[in-house]
Amino acid sequence: MLFRESYEKVKRNRRYFGDFNLIFGASKLNLKIVEVPIRYQERTYGSTNISRFRHGWLLLKMCWFAMRKIKFVG
Q1: Residues 27, 66 contacting (CB under 8 angstroms)
Q2: Element (H, E) at 52
Q3: How many CA atoms lie within 13 A of 69 on its CB side?
Q4: Looking at the domain assignment, is residue 21 inside a domain?
């Protein structure tokens, strides 16, 4: 969840992080990020739109990209 003002800031920098602009953009702008537990259940209808390997590989590449762009705090 983002406030509209925060989303607009992230949206202006969308090209910087591409598909993962919300999480990486929020981090770049030093917005507060909290972890919310999610419980996944097996689908009861239809099929998933996510490819484990293709989208997983994309996420790994974006993490590497972000690691080079964002300063880590110790």
Answers
A1: yes
A2: helix 52-69
A3: 15
A4: yes
Residue the block writes with tokens 């953009």: 25
Side chain identity at 8, as an amino acid letter? E
Task: Specify if 68 maps to a domain.
Answer: yes
Token reading at 38: 């999610």
What one-character DSSP code corresponds to residue 30? T
Q: In the structure encoding, which two tokens stand for residue 37, read together? A: 């537990």
In degrees rounded to 5, what are phi and psi of residue 34?
-125, 155
Residue-wise pLDDT for 5-49, tens only, equals 888 888 887 776 666 677 777 877 888 888 888 887 887 888 877
Number of independent structural domains in the chain: 1
Specify the length of the chain in residues.
74
Q: Give the number of other Cβ atoms within 10 Å of residue 10's Cβ.
A: 21
- What is the tens place of the pLDDT at every residue in 51-70? 778 888 888 887 887 777 66
HSE at residue 32, side-chain half, CA atoms within 13 A, is 5
